[in-house]
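request received
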Amino acid sequence: MAIKKFMYINRKAPYGTIYALESLEVVLIGAAFDQDVSLAFIGDGVYQLVKGQNTQAIGQKNFSPTYAALGDYDVNKIYVEKESLEERGLTLYDLQHLVWEDEDEDWAEKDSIRLVSRSELADVIDEQDVILSF
Amino acid sequence: MKFSIQINEGPYQHQASDTAYQFTKAALAAGHEIFRVFFYHDGVNNATRLAVPPQDDRNIGKLWQELGKENNLDMVVCIAAAQRRGMMDADEAKRQGLDTDNIAAAFRISGLGQLIEAGINSDRLVVFGA
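response:
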C-alpha cells in the first residue's frame, strides 16, 4: 500500500487540557506504521515545544522531554508557524533544539524544526493525505 | 467513498459526538462505507453503557450503539484514553482487577494503531471535536 502523508496539527497549550499529551501518544504509536509523518505547531500549540518546562507546581507529568526523542522515531519534519511564535512573544530560541540523525549522510545531526510562515504552512497542509488535529 | 470517523469529545458537554453521529448516518444513507469509528480523548466516554439522560433528551451512547449494530460498524475505543478515564470492558476490568465494567457491547477496546490504520485505509478520516 502506498505511503500516505500524515500531519499532526498541534493547536493547544501543553497543560490545561490533555490534547497535547494524547496527540504525542498518537505520534509515537503512528511512527511504527512507516508513513510520511510531519508535525505542525500553531496557535497556543507552540508552547508545547518551549524549553525548560517545569510542571512541579501543577502536579502533572512534564512530558516535554519526549519531543526530543521524536528524531529517533524518524519524526523529523516539525513545522512551527512563525506568526504564532511572534504573537506570543516567542522566538525559535525559546524552543527546544530538536534534531535527528541522517542515516544517508553518515548520521549527520540535522535540525527537525522548520520555521514557516502561515501561508507556507497552508501549502504544506494542502499536500497532506491525512490530517489529525489536536 | 470509504470514511473513518474520529470523535474527540465526550457526550452532551460537546456537540462533536452528535455531529459525528449525524455525519455517519448520512454517509451510510448516501451509500458510503464507514471503515471505522474511533473514539479518542474524552470521546471514549460515549461508549459507556450506564448513561441515563433525561427522557426528553437524546441518548447519544444508545444512538451510536443502535447505528453500530444496524450497520455492523467497527466502533473502537482507544485503550490508553479509556484506561485513564475509567472506561473498561469486561476483559480489561478483569485484567486490571476491577469489580465492574462499563463499556457497551457495541464498542470494542483497542490501541491507537487502529486510528493510524483507519487513516491509511480510508479515503477520508473526518475528525470531530477538539
